[in-house]
Amino acid sequence: MPDLITHTAFASFFADKKYRFVFFLLLGAVLPDVTRLFFLFFPDNYSAYWFFTSLHSPLLLILFCVIIVQFFEKDIRWAAFWWLLLGVATHLGLDALQKHLGSYAYPWLFPFSLKGTEWGLFWPEDPLYVAPLLAGAAIIWYYVYTSIK
Amino acid sequence: MFNDKNRLWIILLAAAAIIAGCFYGALAGPIEDPPPQRILENKDRADSEITVRYAKIKSVDNEQLTLSSQNYEFTGIIPETDEGVSVGQDISFEGIVKPGPEVEIDYYHVHPWRPLKYYFSLPAIALIIYILFKKYRWSWRRFIFLEKQKY
Known about the structure:
The complex is a heterodimer.
Chain A: H1 4-12, H2 22-37, H3 46-53, H4 58-69, H5 77-96, H6 131-147
Chain B: H1 7-32, H2 36-40, E1 49-61, E2 64-69, E3 72-77, E4 90-98, E5 102-111, H3 114-135, E6 136-139, E7 144-147
Parallel strand pairs in B: 3-5
Antiparallel strand pairs in B: 1-2, 1-4, 2-3, 4-5, 6-7
């Protein structure tokens, strides 16, 4: 996982003009890794690692999004669902560019396969170098984008 | 799928499917991708390849590293040390299993900023919680978030 500042800043460029659904977009962008934060409570338990890694798969994330939108008004549930999915897609898209050793970093096809593939462009910690710049660009983009009539 | 009538059932069914998937992952994952301890203590796996992600470096003695992964300590022999290899860092590597238990490391990468990544993530979570309560208010009566601003 790149850090969540990188994920949220990157996702924010896809927000709607009024930033009405930006909450869902950003939540979707961090959702796969928020589920992984639970793993911090079981740092040396290999089964727990796999328990929470499964939550990093598209299928379980879609189900997670279905649950989340149930806690919002009926009128915006469909829109919220699609914005959540867009956020998740930006997250998985960034993750797919990373490099890990082995073939078990992200199980894209879970539960049919536990293996995943990556493009191997950068190591997971490398985005830390650009995260402040990306966050700055996202803030500037917010002011420019929302001020255009 | 998103009407109020079936809301409870949707939540329960989706949650059940997620939990079932997680348990399947917890059972099948360690079988398909065994932890280092299971590979290194298996005599049949001698001279076979091993890949370990995020082992902790406990000590460095020239080209010999004491590594820890899932509370299991073993030795790693790296081809040459550089300044990136130091105690407390996380390391991922590919190598060959040797008796000992020992791993002859062919290729490795040190993850110097890994813990920082988690601290760097906290402001993003704080921002999302802030946006949630700025844009929505919780209704205990309906048990949902309501938009504050009408569009």
